[in-house]
Amino acid sequence: MVYDILIIGGGPAGISAGIYAKRANKSVVILEKFAVGGEVNLLDKVDNYLGFHSMDGQALAKAFKTHAKALELDFIYEEAIDFNLTGEVKKVMTNKHTYEAKSVIFALGANPRELGIEGEEKFVGRGVSYCAVCDGNFYKDKNVAVVGSGDSAISDAVYLSDLCKKVYLLTRENMKLFGRSEQELDKKNITVLKGAEASKVLGENKVTALEYVKDGKRKSLKLDGVFVAIGRRPQTENLVGKLDLDEKGYIVCDERLHASQEGVFACGDARNGLVKQIATAVSDGAVASMEAIKYVGLMKAKKSPKK
Q1: Model pTM?
Q2: What distance in Å separates the CA atoms of residue 69 and residue 236, rounded to the nearest whole number?
């Protein structure tokens, strides 16, 4: 069959888009390669999503799935690997099948870039975090480190300084301020360690320390948390040459979330948005879906014979 709307990605953005499409009585399906809820399943605690105070990630993902199931929203557990997004009918290929749709919504998400050091993976959700805005509240009056040299690392350090007892910023010697002021980092509870390279996360059941190398010497910091801020990686490798992407690989969209091909939309972390949160992903999904619904309606109207 040719679907009205095909959604790629079953995280918060994709599910939100699917719910709006289903409620508009459109034929819709979601392709998801991992699990319903996407990366939300991997979160230890979610404390900033309206109406779901202090809920663990898997429970929130289950709530999303229950909502989708109540509307009989269809999921297909396959990974999209190739696309033909031109023409009135779009084609999405997986390793098993080819699916066709009048419109496509990309809700692919983005993965945080890892440091790749010993102990990092072991303590994800138990002291290692990739989102200061998401998890900073859990470290009130505690000691933390931020690792990174870009604008996001500076922002995270400043944000955490209002919550935490002590913040260490481990950064390259040639850290750039990106037009920001040194005064932002000139706080009594922020210590900038230029030229410090994180080497190992320590702990038993949770993070207790971070080892680093500076000036050829190995040192350590007693900490409760380590925030990694070295960027994110959108899952758009297979879209090169298919859609316009920015220099970091994010899908370029206008304010109505239209991508560069007619009838193609993007939402959530994989698009060129400023904020990457569950709340903004859900909002994006609603906007993208409503635009796709309008697009499908206009296609139908053009084909209908005039009386």
Answers
A1: 0.77
A2: 28
